[in-house]
């Protein structure tokens, strides 16, 4: 168990690909490091980006190919699909890859302490975590990534909208054909 206040050679804030690469390199050089991540390791690509979007697009492609066969002598079959199971499968894949590619790897790094918390600088060499701990280091790497933002379009506050993170977390399918087409295009062009 780590003490309330701790000193490290390096503190990395973030848990995505850049932070993870830095942690591996620090471990290779025996640098005592705190890896501070407030959410899930893997950040955008694994959790709400490339992996889940490509998984859902793959499902959509198979569903489309079953409905739109290019051969006139084969009758299309549309037995539908189970959206809840599709999302469950996507979530299972995300959890599996997060564990395999991030959590299991970080647990094997002897010089890295993974800390699940939000951080705020209180001085040039100190951060305070939302769990009450204060950490100190001579060097920091800020690799906190980004999150979706909603552009300030006129009238945007008057309509329901979804960010990409929210869209990938839907539990029910929308019936609006135009929305579905726009969503697919947005995911393909904006996520990866």
Automatic annotation (TrEMBL):
<dbReference type="GO" id="GO:0050660">
    <property type="term" value="F:flavin adenine dinucleotide binding"/>
</dbReference>
<protein>
    <submittedName>
        <fullName>Putative mercuric reductase, MerA</fullName>
    </submittedName>
</protein>
<feature type="domain" description="FAD/NAD(P)-binding">
    <location>
        <begin position="8"/>
        <end position="172"/>
    </location>
</feature>
<dbReference type="GO" id="GO:0003955">
    <property type="term" value="F:NAD(P)H dehydrogenase (quinone) activity"/>
</dbReference>
<dbReference type="InterPro" id="IPR036188">
    <property type="entry name" value="FAD/NAD-bd_sf"/>
</dbReference>
<dbReference type="Pfam" id="PF07992">
    <property type="entry name" value="Pyr_redox_2"/>
</dbReference>
<dbReference type="InterPro" id="IPR023753">
    <property type="entry name" value="FAD/NAD-binding_dom"/>
</dbReference>
